[in-house]
Amino acid sequence: MNNETGTMAEIGVIGGSGFYELFADAEQIRVDTPFGAPSDEVAVGTAAGRRVAFIPRHGRDHRFPPHKINYRANLWALRSLGVRQILAPCAVGSLRRDLPPGTIVVPDQLVDRTSGRVQTFYDSGAVHAPFADPYCADGRTAVLETAAEANTEVIDGGTMVVVEGPRFSTRAESQWFSAAGWSLVNMTGHPESVLARELALCYISLALVTDVDAGIDAHESVDQDTVFRVFAQNTKRMRDLVLGAIGALPKHRACRCATSLDGLHLPFQLP
Questions:
Q1: DSSP character for 265?
Q2: Integer angstrom CA distances of residue 235 from 14, 25, 45, 193, 268
Q3: Which range (1-10, 114-123, 245-254) has the least confidence?
Q4: Which of 155, 218, 202, 225 is nearest to 183 (CA)?
Q5: Among residues 104, 109, 146, 130, which one has the least CA distance to residue 196?
Q6: What does 106-130 look like in DSSP terms, one character per residue?
Q7: Catalytic position from the list 112, 133, 213, 217
Q8: Is 213 designated active site?
Q9: Residue 225's pLDDT is what?
């Protein structure tokens, strides 16, 4: 790690467009990891009275598609800076007509439909991290309470299915996902969330619906311009929610995430 100032953070934000200026006093830090380089330099600064590290998931110029992001390096870099809780805003497609574009959802479950991605830090030994509940319960509560206090409408709960990408789903795939009872479709929520768990980090997803997936409405289909435009239109709402949640996250973790690795013999020393 190239960090001459010794700057550290307690909360991490993994985001994209519109979040690069999350705080005014950000210092750019290059972090080297055993898994290669993160998506970009990490911006570390103060927000809501907390020390926060921000990393652009796709890189500042959006050069990394979902299947090429170095998720392991991103999570390792954040933990090595002291981060223990992560807020992860993301764009999602809706699999339900009652979740139109502009809706913000705090999902509570995840389904992995990716393929070929490196999704573990545990390359040796028998190490099986618990993942029945992929998102931090205390962190989700903090986000929902923040939204309620700010009169921001947020949907509590929902299942996010993560697909490989970079293509969007076919109509048949969308109908299949919807019939299974899943709410949202996304391309980056896995392995990001499970890698956070393997480092005993709290991870909370904040999902912004940018489109209704192709198979839900026969007259609609998804395109990249629409996704980017709707996300840009709602960036301020998401950024305000993230900033509020930063201040609301518990300063002392009492959740299961913090003890999720207790009793396991890891093949490495945690940073």
A1: -
A2: 14, 20, 20, 22, 38
A3: 1-10
A4: 155
A5: 130
A6: E--EEEEE--S----S--SS-----
A7: 213
A8: yes
A9: 77
Name the 3-class secondary structure at 247. Answer: helix
pLDDT at position 218, please?
63
Q: Which two tokens stand for residue 182?
A: 């899943």
- In tens, the pLDDT along 32-46 reads 999 999 999 999 999
Stated length of the chain = 271
Beta-ladder partners of 51? 46
Question: What is the C-alpha separation between 83 and 132, in angstroms, rounded?
Answer: 23
Q: Which of 40, 112, 211, 217 is catalytic?
A: 211
Residue 172 has which token pair?
């048949």
5 pLDDT exceeds 60?
A: no
At residue 222, the 3 state secondary structure works out as: coil
Bin 235: left if φ > 0, else alpha if -120 < ψ < 50, else beta.
alpha
Is there a catalytic annotation at residue 211? yes
Q: pLDDT tens digits for 49-104? A: 999 999 999 998 889 999 999 999 999 999 999 999 999 999 999 999 999 999 99
Q: Which two tokens stand for residue 238?
A: 């998401």
Has residue 147 got a pLDDT over 70?
A: yes
Query: 3-state SS of the chain: helix, strand, coil percent to 5?
Result: 25, 25, 50
Q: How far is CA 91 from the centre of its chain?
A: 10
Within 13 Å, how many C-alpha atoms sit on residue 182's CB side? 24
